[in-house]
Amino acid sequence: MVIKSKEIEDIVNSYSDKITIATLGSHSALQILKGAKDEGFKTLAICEKGRDVPYKRFKVADEIVTLNSFKDILDEKIIRQLQEKNTLLVPHGSLIAHVGIEGIENTLNLPIIGNRNILRWEADRNLERKWLDKAGLRMPKEISDPKKIKQLSIVKFPGAKGGKGYFLVNNHSEFIKKLRILKNNNQITSYDAEHATIQEYIIGVNMYLSYFYSPLNDEVEFFSIDRRCESNIDGLTRIPASDQINTLIEPSYVVVGNSPLVVRESLLSKIFKMGDQVVNVSKDIIPPGMIGAFCLETIVDETLEFITFELSARIVAGTNPFTGGSPYSRIMYDPGMSMGHRIAREVKNAFKTKKQMKMIT
Ligand code: AMP
Ligand code: AMP
Question: Mutate which of 128, 253, 296, 301 to test ligand 2's pocket (most atoms within 8 Å of Cβ)?
Answer without folding.
Answer: 253
